[in-house]
Design brief:
By secondary structure, the chain is an alpha+beta fold. It has a single domain, classed as 3-Layer(aba) Sandwich (Aminopeptidase). Helices cover 24% and strands 36% of the residues. The chain has 5 helices and 10 strands; from the N terminus they run βαβββαβαββββααβ. The strands form 2 sheets. It has a 7-stranded mixed beta sheet. Strands 8-7-10 form a 3-stranded mixed beta sheet, with no helix packed on it.
Length: 183
């Protein structure tokens, strides 16, 4: 029977790491460019990744990861969980595995005490994430901080967790967000 396990980076089994990377290479090949052409982990260890795994034995069925970031926005620094790399391998879709890891990751974030969590998705997935409490924010997202930042088009959805995060919700709705790279 498939089981859900949450792993801190230091305990994340390599068998699941490589399956997640293989899926990412097929689904999001544009990620694998430049300095990260040969990316070997979903997120760098310095960002304290937390991995949510739905597996049957050594077979990865569904996966998502969080990484901790500090992001400046509207004059304040925010402690953020970046939610990304959510995947379910095609043979295991429509069986509720993705929903289980989404719910587990969302609950984890809500108990974390960080200010906010951010994910990026296709507009068609807004209702899916919204059903677990994620809110679409409508201000633009830009890649880069100076010079000529580039608009990042996917929908940005957020959870507002801490009191500071909740107080900043209107700022996130009103003011553009600048990030170094998408996750």
């Amino acid at each position: 029977m498939p089981t859900l396990t949450i792993y801190e980076q230091q305990n994340f089994p390599s068998v699941y790491n490589w399956q997640a990377i293989a899926f990412m290479r097929c689904e999001w090949p544009s990620v694998f460019q430049g300095d990260i052409l040969y990316l070997s982990a979903p997120y760098p260890p310095e960002f304290e990744p937390v991995h949510f795994v739905m597996a049957e034995g050594e077979s990865l069925l569904s996966y998502v990861a969080l990484m901790k970031l500090s992001i400046p926005h509207a004059g304040q620094e925010h402690a953020v969980y970046a939610f990304g790399n959510m995947l379910t391998f095609p043979p295991y879709r429509t069986q509720g595995y993705g929903r289980k890891i989404l719910r587990a990751a969302t609950d984890f974030i809500c108990q974390s005490g960080l200010d906010v969590a951010i994910l990026f998705c296709d507009k068609s997935l807004e209702n899916y994430y919204g059903s677990e409490g994620w809110l679409t924010t409508h201000s633009p997202t830009y890649l880069g901080h100076s010079g000529q930042p580039v608009a990042y088009e996917p929908s940005r959805m957020m959870l507002f967790v801490s009191e500071k995060g909740k107080a900043a919700q209107e700022d996130f709705e009103r003011s553009p967000l600048y990030i170094d790279y998408p996750w």
